[in-house]
Amino acid sequence: GVTVGRTAAMGEDERVPDALNPADPAFARDPYPYYARLRAEGPAARVALANGTHAWLVTGYRQAREVLADPRFSNVPPRAAGRPKPDSPAQRARGCLARHMLNTDAPDHTRLRRLSTAAFTPRRVDALRPRIERLTADLVAEAGARLARDGSVDLVDAFAFPLPVLVIGEVLGVPEADRADLRTWTYRVGSPADALAPGAVDEAWTSLHAYFTELIARKRRAPGDDLFSALVRDAGEGGLDDGELLAMAFLLLFAGYETTMNLLASASLLLLTHPEELAAARREGPDRWAAVTEEVLRHASPLEGTTWRRTTERVELGGGLGRGVVIPADASVLVVLAAANRDPEYFPAPDAFRPGRYLSDGGRAAAHVAFGHGPHFCLGSRLARLEAAIALPLLFAGLPGMTLAADPAALDYRPGLLVRGPRVLPVRGTA
Ligand code: HEM
């Protein structure tokens, strides 16, 4: 079963002796009972992790929003004291690419965010629709052909993974011929080093760094009508400098692909296991599909936790009802969005997958925190929703007879506390 973390909701006393192991496959598959127990103890709890460190996990909905809007929770990663000097090319590349706005606080963040918001306009995002439709249609046709040939296909491999990478390729204005490379490098830098051939992860970091450096130079010479060209064009006087552009390209790639991949994979799974909801979406059209997407975001939050925060001082959280928690200064804090989105104090029947709630509750459920909250609220939420709105109906229209070819309770999930989604999603069918 799932190991219960050692928690101390009210202070420093530690009651439960086992540490939380995020790599435990049972935990990865279904972390929700654990989060529910944690939340029952208090809206934030200090947990021992299997790697010997401690972290504060915020599981309450109200407190999640409180933390994400509070500048005393910093996004700047702790100083790299004691880490090896960035003396290898791969470490230097990684250091450059990680200097992006999700790792900054105000006022740096405010400036970077303003510049990127100016480029990421609704008009520019909406203009991607025909391209996303074409990319999806091609992938679905290919998946259909594989289904007909092999009798089964993995929807993660054939659909949920490639589509977001291709769409980010559009955002960055990357030539189609380069997108396979982008896909490979992105996959590698997101993988544990020991899961790949020696040197593969390092090689991917240096390749991405070199590629984006060259991309910026190319956009300067010959700007396109893509979003990244707009950022490059506005660089210079008061705009992004070259290092910031580089980190922004990497952030868009990284923030945009794995999250959307998990949204598409979890949505496919939930619709395959809830045929009545699939039928309702097919019958009722776009508003119902949009409600499905929102409910997947809430019920199967693709970003299970935010990026790590660190307290700049002692913070008293959610006081008032006798359930207040004191988090000391310099503590590691993770806002568990997946847990906040199932807080029964805010969402009635939180464990039920019920897209209909969005059409009947006057917008209450739409205040889920799957895209975060506060100054770092997801820059790509409109794009992610557009991708889902296009891709899900096309997938189920193109592969109408498919059925799940695995036990949903035994699927393999990505380990860790940060992202969540099935790693493979085999379907069979009569395409
Ligand atoms: C930030 C979720 C898709 C770009 C965030 C955050 C969340 C999130 C929760 C805040 C993280 C934190 O506070 O630590 C999601 C989900 C997505 C998605 C669930 C898909 C279902 C995208 C896409 C893009 C994108 C498609 C871009 C193309 C960003 C950026 C940030 C961000 C740039 C950093 C914003 C800042 O620091 O101000 N996202 N995201 N995201 N997201 Fe998304």
Automatic annotation (TrEMBL):
Pfam families: p450. It is an enzyme of class 1 (oxidoreductase). The lineage of its organism: Bacteria, Bacillati, Actinomycetota, Actinomycetes, Kitasatosporales. This is Pikromycin synthase. Keywords: Heme, Iron, Metal-binding, Monooxygenase, Oxidoreductase. Its EC number is 1.14.15.33. PROSITE patterns: CYTOCHROME_P450 (PS00086). It comes from the Bacteria. Residues 72-91 are annotated as: Disordered. PANTHER family: CYTOCHROME P450 YJIB-RELATED, P450, PUTATIVE (EUROFUNG)-RELATED. One of its GO terms (molecular function) is oxidoreductase activity. Belongs to the cytochrome P450 family.
